Amino acid sequence: MKNINSFLNWSESQLTQAGVLSPRLDSEVLLAHALKLSRSQLLIHSKKTLNEAEKKCAEINVRRRRKREPVSLITGYQEFWSLDFLVDENVLIPRPETELLIETGLNCISPASKNILDLGTGSGVLALVMAKEASACKVTALEIDPKALKIAKQNAKNHGMRDRIKFLCKDLRKEDWGGPYSMILSNPPYISSTDIDKLMPEVKNYEPRKALDGGLTGIEFYKSIIPIAINQLEEKGFLILEIGHNQVNEVTALLRQFSAYQKIEVIKDYSGYNRVVKAQKESRYG
Question: What is the mean pLDDT of residues 235-248?
């Protein structure tokens, strides 16, 4: 393991043995992080000899990944919407499929849109991206966990959005959300309690259970959000929710229990799974 190339070969072998799904990619990302280089620079300087300090730091990263710790928690950041976001053990690591939630929200923006709520903000990705992309709107981010909220605030500061987002530390099921809002976005916990231990080690062992656990059926948060949101939305306001791919019938049935919700629509992600449910609050004037 004298140079970058030989270290990468060793690292790939180690991660393959540990059952990591993308051993070469992860090896490159982790070594680039340890050396403060880009992945392309690794290839350019593949013959560069590693000094002892560099090798020790890189080996520590590989050992952590062998234990199936997520790459994002080792490096401390995750890319989302082409931006880098700080993450730690207190927040859910942003997933690519959640970008569909933002795309759906942006498609619902109109000149009448004034206030947007990100319900259960976690690392703040939804609030921050909406603040950047919908610059005419005021954005509020609500989160029960003060440790997660600290990460969200730091991400907002890092991307120059700290003054554009109002942060609330509240329990969405028990406290007022501070509405009314033109749009409410949420990616709530939606994994069934009984299914969490079946998830990949990267998720079940390292990501916060509170950000995953949707109760015995996986839809407990939807049961709270959907009725409360009626009084927190403006007329013609949108409720937009990310869902598990097998939850579409349950969530749309919950929405249909309330006549205030109209134009219920299900949006599939790029893998063909049901991923987002959108509903609009009716106008009293038709």
Answer: 95
Cβ neighbours of residue 162 under 8 Å, at least 6 residues apart? 153, 156
112: pLDDT confidence band, cut at 50, 70 and 90? confident
Strands 274-281, 181-186: pairing kind? unpaired
SS3 label, residue 71: helix
Q: Under a CB-based contact definition with an 8 Å cutoff, are residues 243 and 276 in contact?
A: yes
Length of the chain: 286
Six token digits for residue 59: 């080996």
Residues 6+ apart with CB under 8 A from 217: 192, 250
Give the three-state DSSP class for 92: coil
- d(Cα 165, Cα 42) in Å, to the nearest integer? 37
How is residue 273 written in tokens? 């799974």
The pTM assigned to this predicted structure is 0.92
Q: For 59-111, how does the pLDDT look when each residue is reduced to its tens digit (9 = 90+)?
A: 999 999 999 999 999 999 999 999 999 999 999 999 999 999 999 999 999 98
User: Per the omega criterion (within 30 degrees of 0), is the bond before 180 cis?
Assistant: yes
Alpha helices of 194-270 — where are they, by DSSP H? 201-204, 220-232, 248-256
Give whole-number Cα distances, 147 to 19, 76, 123, 124, 188, in Å: 31, 15, 10, 12, 17
Q: What are 193-233's pLDDT values in tens digits?
A: 999 999 999 999 999 999 999 999 999 999 999 999 999 99
CA angle 125, 128, 132 (to 5 degrees): 135
CA distance 272 to 197: 25
